Amino acid sequence: MSSGKNNPKSSLDSVNLRKNFIWNTIGSTASAFVSLFYMMIVTRLNGIDDAGIFSFAFSTAAILLVIGTYSGRTFQVTDKNKKTSDSDYFYLKILTCAVMFIAGLVFCLMRRYSGEKFIIIMFLTVARIIEAMAEYAYAVIQKKDRLYQVGRSMLMKSVGGLVGFFIIDYFTRNITLSCTMVIIANLLIMIFYDFPRVFKTGFRLEGLCGERVWYLLRIGFFTFGFTFLNFYIVNTARYALDSITSDSAQTIYGIIAMPASVIALIGQYLIQPFLTSFKKFFASDAAKFQGLVLKLCLAIFGIGMVCILAAWLLGIPVLELLYAIELDGNLWGLIMIIIGGLFNALVSIISAALVTMRRTGDQFWIYCAASLAAFASSQILVTASGVFGACLSYMFSMMLLFCMYAGVFFYRLYQLKTNHEQEVQRATRE
Q1: What confidence tens digit (pLDDT) does each residue in 140-185 have?
Q2: Mapping DSSP to helix (H, G, I), strand (E, B) and coil, where does residue 173 land?
Q3: Helix 247-271 to helix 48-69 angle, to the nearest 10 degrees?
Q4: Who's near 188: CB < 8 A, 6+ residues apart?
Q5: R_g over Cα of the chain
Q6: What three-state secondary structure class fits 207?
Q7: What is the pLDDT of residue 351?
Q8: Following CA atoms 234, 240, 245, 251 in sequence, which dihedral angle do they give, to the nearest 10 degrees?
Q9: Residue 329 CB coordination number (10 Å)
């Protein structure tokens, strides 16, 4: 038997894993930090009130994106069901993106937004619709172990959209016009980079089968539901601020909340290279599956501790330097945001594990309970303490969410091990 050291396939797998990890890290990091740079540009060029509008619109479009991606890339990549194909997921994506656009329009009309705020939200929603279609392409590419191509695409979109946005906004001071560059960058890269690589995997679009699309809608509903509620919980404080305070308060919260989104996205790019390992270990070795989840959680916890220390020492001065805005008195709010972001990243790892276990219903009900708590706490705390109350509400919501997730994960893992042991005992007796 040849050893892994002399096995060409083993060496190729190792190279692919390293390349996938490096490029996915680069692309996800660019995607994580791009919102920070958008806020820097708008705050410096357009002022604090316009920055508040842009920050709110950006977050709203991110929530609507969950409708477009529906059950998400993790669900598609780890899908072992032979009854459906990637073509069925494509038609599902067309449907969910149409619903996403309608939802954005209805949201704006219900909130009675008009003028610039309405247009910016809808333009960013269109940009996110293109991103949702690209996520479909990413899943097809990732299943062929070419995650590095996904990372490159994410990098190009982040840089291209940001540069285009900056150039237009610098000369026009018009956020609405600048947002069109984000749409153009996303669209061009999806057409000329993402989908050509999808077809290189051997993918061929089959005819529409409404029954299979409806099946994917049904089995993916809980995943969509808890993902949507996750984004809602993360942004509950923003909506309380939008209803209770001013656009300038929205800007301040958006700036100090930025590190939390970065930590959460770091969690995502740590997870992505291991999704196929999740599927393999879950099917063959529960102990290795649990070990991988715990290792990823420890890695995120270590990153979070470094971020908390950095925020304590340098956070406020650095943010003031970047955004040219006074943030004195917001240190404790920043610390609470980062603690909340850490717990949110830990939740994302456990969530990916539970999706692999197909325990999506559990997560949906967790988020239903957590959403009610987040809504109540945000209304009370924002009314009482403004931006500080929003930060406290975010931290409380994420800690509660993590506690519930950890409890459910270990309970389901215990059930899995118990069932496996019982099957082994029955097989031995027979």
Answers
A1: 898 888 889 999 999 999 999 999 999 999 999 999 999 999 999 9
A2: coil
A3: 40
A4: 160
A5: 22
A6: coil
A7: 84
A8: 10
A9: 10
Return the higher-pLDDT residue of 45 and 36: 45
- Name the DSSP class of 209: -
Q: What pLDDT score was predicted for residue 4?
A: 47
Calculate helix-pair angle for 286-310, 275-284, nearest 10 degrees. 140
* Structural contact between residues 345 and 304, judged by C-beta atoms closer than 8 angstroms: yes
The reported pTM is 0.77
The residues, ordered by sequence, that sit 6+ positions from 257 with a Cβ below 8 Å of its Cβ are 237, 238, 337, 391, 394
Residue 19 and residue 263 in contact, taking contact as beta carbons nearer than 8 Å = no
Q: Is 349 exposed, middle or buried (0-12, 13-18, 19+ CB in 10 A)?
A: buried
User: What does the DSSP 8-state code read for residue 233?
Assistant: H
- Going by C-alpha positions, the residue among 376, 395, 374, 378 that lies closest to residue 386 is 378
pLDDT tens for residues 54-77?
988 998 998 999 999 997 787 788
The pLDDT of residue 114: 79
**Tokens representing 27?**
């692309």
**Overall size of the chain counted in residues:** 430
Task: Answer for the pair 58, 31: CB distance below 8 angstroms, yes or no.
Answer: no
How far is residue 255's CA from residue 319's CA, in Å, rounded to a whole number?
7
120: CB partners within 8 A, 6+ apart: 53, 54, 57, 175, 176, 179
- Residue tagged 């977050």 (tokens): 59
User: CB under 8 Å to 286, separation ≥6 — which residues?
Assistant: 413, 416, 417, 420
Name the residue among 400, 402, 310 with its Cα closest to residue 350.
Answer: 402
Is there a contact between 186 and 131 (Cβ–Cβ < 8 Å)?
A: yes
Q: What is the DSSP letter of 4?
A: G
Cα 92-229-383 angle, rounded to 5 deg: 145
The residue whose two tokens read 């604090």 is 48
Closest CA to 185 of 159, 149, 148: 159
Q: How far apart are CA 266 and CA 211, in angstroms?
A: 37
